[in-house]
Write a structure and sequence with these properties.
It is a single chain. The chain is of the alpha+beta class and 304 residues long. α6 packs antiparallel against α7.
């Protein structure tokens, strides 16, 4: 499903915000106008405007289920199913979650599912254990361990803040917590040289300036390259000169994408060209990292 080209995101800032991908306590209000009815179970049934354009996505895998028709309550002509998230195509913001009664409830008000909360708490415990193990075997310095634990504490504080203010952890907050844990897992894995964690939620859900957004395939790939660029630099596997060049090339790709978009979409040919540009950029980054690792190895610095 190629919904993404209609997202009204700033592609340039999407790619270059290398250090701003942490979830924050802020939770910006989405622009979609909805009618909300609060029920006795703390959920809030939401009526989405018929004039809007929406897609339905699996929040755990990121798989797009289809376009949602709010007038007919159908997804590409089929029935809604429990557990999916409805995303506004205009801005990538999740606006509804389908609960066990097949109601579309407001993600900003309604409580997250117990299954998702259990996954979040389990991952937090797993990361704590992984930090202890890495510290004990010397894969992490005490300062690094303290930094990672501080991030875990911040994520826990965000969850507790919701519980104190509303009595529940909202679905949007749970997605933001999942994003924070995904990000921390990605940062911890290469440092400790351990097995990669399975994402708590679909990694296409990201938080920028406190706003939860679902990225399309192209923007998600650029986001991953940008994040990796920062991580490799922080680990000493990219130089400042490498990062400057890679940023400039990523910026050029974003500007080219803006020029390619016609009527809110990319042609198959233009999409292919952009993908090839990202392939070349990824190869450049891999070569840069490999070269610096070779230099580090020659002077006795571990290159993992």
């Amino acid at each position: 499903m190629n919904y993404q080209r209609s997202l009204s995101l700033s592609l340039l800032s999407s790619c270059l915000a290398f250090s701003g991908f942490c979830a924050s306590n802020a939770d910006t209000t989405e622009t979609t106008q909805t009618t909300t009815t609060v029920t006795s179970s703390n959920s809030a049934v939401v009526q989405l405007p018929a004039s809007g354009q929406y897609v339905v996505v699996d929040p755990l895998t990121g798989q797009i289920q289809g376009k949602y028709d709010p007038s007919a309550r159908l997804v590409d002509g089929g029935a809604l199913r429990t557990g999916v998230v409805i995303v506004d195509q205009a801005n990538g913001g999740p606006v509804g979650f389908v609960d066990a009664s097949l109601n579309i409830v407001d993600v900003a008000i309604s409580p997250a599912s117990p299954t998702l909360l259990v996954s979040i708490n389990t991952r937090r415990q797993e990361l704590n254990t992984r930090i202890d193990e890495a510290l004990n075997r010397g894969a992490l310095t005490p300062a690094q361990a303290t930094e990672f634990r501080a991030e875990l504490d911040r994520i826990a504080a965000d969850e507790e803040s919701d519980r104190k203010s509303t009595g529940v952890v909202t679905y949007r907050r749970a997605l933001m917590l999942g994003y924070g844990l995904n990000t921390l897992s990605d940062r911890l894995t290469p440092v400790t040289n351990t097995v990669v964690f399975k994402p708590v939620i679909a990694p296409e859900f990201v938080v920028r300036d406190g706003r939860l957004t679902l990225l399309d395939a192209m923007d998600f790939r650029k986001h991953r390259l940008a994040t990796r660029c920062d991580d490799e630099y922080a680990a000493g596997r990219l130089s400042a000169q490498n990062v400057t060049r890679l940023k400039e090339e990523l910026n050029k790709i974003s500007l080219t994408q803006q020029k390619y978009v016609k009527h809110g979409a990319l042609s198959t040919e233009k999409d292919r060209k952009l993908s090839e540009s990202l392939d070349r950029l990824q190869d450049e980054m891999n070569n840069d990292v490999a070269l610096i690792n070779q230099k580090r190895a020659r002077i006795g610095i571990r290159a993992d």
